[in-house]
Target: Phosphoribosylamine--glycine ligase
Amino acid sequence: MNILVIGSGGREHALVWKIAQSPLVEKLYCAPGNPGTAQLAENVNIAVDDLPALLAFAKGKEIGLTVVGPELPLSLGLVDLFEENGLKVFGARKNAALIEASKAFSKDLMHKYQVPTAAYGVFTEVDKAIAFIDQTGIPIVIKADGLAAGKGVIIAQNREEAVAAVTDMLSGNAFGSAGSRVVVEEFLKGEEASFLAFTDGKNIIPLASAQDHKAVFDGDQGPNTGGMGAYSPAPVVTPAIHEKAMAEVMRRTVDGLAAEGRTYKGVLYAGLMIDGESVKTLEFNARFGDPECQPLLMRMKSDIVPVLLAVADGDLSGVEIEWHDKAAVCVVMAAGGYPGDYKKGDRISGLGEAAQVEDLVVFHAGTKSDQGGILTNGGRVLGVTALGTTVPEAIERAYQGVAKISWPEVHYRKDIGAKAVNR
Model:
């Protein structure tokens, strides 16, 4: 069949890479794609939020399955539009994708259905938010309610920072309309993990465990980013924690959404905070994590296409997913200055040499091609992802690839996966 992947980041390159291996694929397209997806699929110059053009393309090319990568088209209702037109599509409908598009909706849903999470308040007025900050204490977490590309979360270490964050967001300076409402919540201690599962709205099939690294600098220092690297499996997700996450987080959330008339079909991502035996939910995403998708798909042994089709058809019963025993590590190579201002258009060297490393794939995230080369075109530029029999071996191999690639002011963390090794 003909398959269309929507998106242009590292996650979409990983999806294209994995889907391309399926014998069920006749022709593969990616809209708008990037230079990495262009090596495996035909890139189509349509923006992810141009829903009418995407629909016309899918109909014209007789697309048998559309796979939605990023959150924006989900929140705009692309899945609803495609389904109304009789097209098969993998992703959450607009009313279910609200679990990511609105932090306030997500927190209220968790509260209602007893999904463990941090104490919180939702505010549109600065003085009420400040009163809650004073009552809760420091450190405290301030989140823009709407979509902010993984950057709308500030962990304030003192009162001044907290007050500045809510004032900035609510006055519309920091994140525009995404910050016109803020969620203020207690700071949770522990170790984070990413827990992803496929669901048809009833059946839930977990993916392998993973851990993302949000802060820009080593040792989890500096501002939050969209993710500076990830690894799988995450040893912090023990069998007991896995069971708890499935029962108290995934099951309650999927059932809660269904009870609200918001049947969730797609991949559901829970950001968890694990402290001893305690599991609390930090947030939900309505799609594959980026960069978690990269190591997860490298570890997935099964053909992904039948799984995606089963979700789109609304029936995952009987589907099983096999995983490689190996570990996978993804190191994000970013532009200097990210997540603040950064330069685009630097020439990247060493991609060919890195590609020679065994069991390693360089996923493109923010790149563009020009005559005879690849240039930087985003904050997170590449996701260098490697397999190894153990996490330390996968780390060593990933950094072996990283060492071969360069451009001016390239920045990456040197400690991706260290938490797994320390465990």
